[in-house]
Amino acid sequence: ALIYLLKYPYLACLRPTQKMNLFQSITSALDNTLASDPTAVIFGEDVAFGGVFRCTVGLRDKYGKDRVFNTPLCEQGIVGFGIGVAVAGATAIAEIQFADYIFPAFDQIVNEAAKYRYRSGNMFDCGNLTIRAPWGCVGHGSLYHSQSPEAFFAHCPGLKVVIPRSPIQAKGLLLSCIADKNPCIFFEPKILYRAAVEQVPEDPYTIPLSQAEVLQEGSDVTLVAWGTQIHVLKEVASMAQEKLGVSCEVIDLQTILPWDIETVCKSVVKTGRLLISHEAPVTGGFASEISSTVQEECFLNLEAPISRVCGYDTPFPHIFEPFYIPDKWKCFEAIKKMINY
Fold first, then answer.
1. 249 has catalytic annotation
2. Catalytic site residue 75?
3. What pLDDT, on a 0 to 100 scale, did the predictor assign at position 12?
4. Rounded to whole angstroms, what are the CA distances from 32 to 28, 175, 195, 201, 209?
5. What is the pLDDT of residues 276-321, one digit of tens each?
6. Which of 145, 198, 231, 289 is the catalytic position?
7. What's the pLDDT at 148?
8. Which of 25, 35, 109, 102 is nearest to 68 (CA)?
C-alpha cells in the first residue's frame, strides 16, 4: 500500500480503503459511476443478477432495472445499442461475457464506434461508450474462454484498449475509460478476478491512460507485458536476479492503444535488451508492434535481438494449456539467451 501511495500520491487522500479482489474493484468502479452519473447504464448478458463473474452484483437492486439490465445473447446488438446510447449523450457501459465472443460485434466496434466521430467531422461521437470483457487464460477455458484479442483492436484508430493487472489498477483505469471521450475496450484478466487482492479506495479515482508503469527498475534487460503476464515477469525478474545476477526492469504497459512508446524506449536505451511477453499467438501479436517500434527507435542501443515470448500459432488448447502459455521458464530461457548473445 505504501508503494502505491508513493507512486500515486493522490490516493493518499482517498479514505476509507477496503480489501477488494479484482472483480470487487470493478464493481466498486461501476457503483461509483452509477452514483455520480445519472445517465450511466450497464447492460449485457446476465449483468442483472451480477454476471457470471459477479462484477455487477447488487447494482440492479441499488440502481434499478432501467439502469442495470440484461440483453439478448447478441454481441452485435449489445455494442450497437451501446453506440446509440452513447451518441444520444448517455454513458454506456457494455459487457461482453467473454472476450472470445467479442467478434460478432467486431463490425460495430471497428466500423461504427471507432469511426463515428471521424465520419461526422466531430459533429457526433460515441466517446461515452466503454466495453468490458473478461480476457485471457484461466486454466481450463480451452478454445472459447481463453483468448486475448487485444491485437485485433490495436489496428483500429479511434479506439482505446486497456488491460489492468490488479484491483487498484482495475478500478482507476476503468474509471478513466468511462470518463474518456473515446470509445474504450477494457479487458479484465479473468484468472485474477479472485486471485488478486489489494486495499482499494472506496471513493472514485483515475489512473491516466496511455502511461506505462515501471514496476521494478533494472539495468540489464527490459521486460514488458500487461494483465496476467505482468505477474509472470515479476517472478522471472526475481529468478534472473537470483540465478543469473541479471537486473531486470519490469514495465506494465497498461494501455495497448495508444501505447506508451516513450517509457519503453527510455528503458531499452538503458538496458540494451527487450523481452515482450503475452498469451496471444506470437504472429501479429502486439509484441510485434512493440518490437518493430523499439527496433526503429533504439537500434544502436540494442545489445541483443528483441525477444518475443508468446502463445503459439494454434487455437488455445485445453489439456495442453500448460505447454501453450508463455510461462516463467520460457521467459527465463529467453533472458539467458539474450544475456549470452
1. no
2. yes
3. 62
4. 6, 9, 23, 11, 19
5. 999 999 999 999 999 999 999 999 999 999 999 999 999 999 999 9
6. 145
7. 98
8. 35
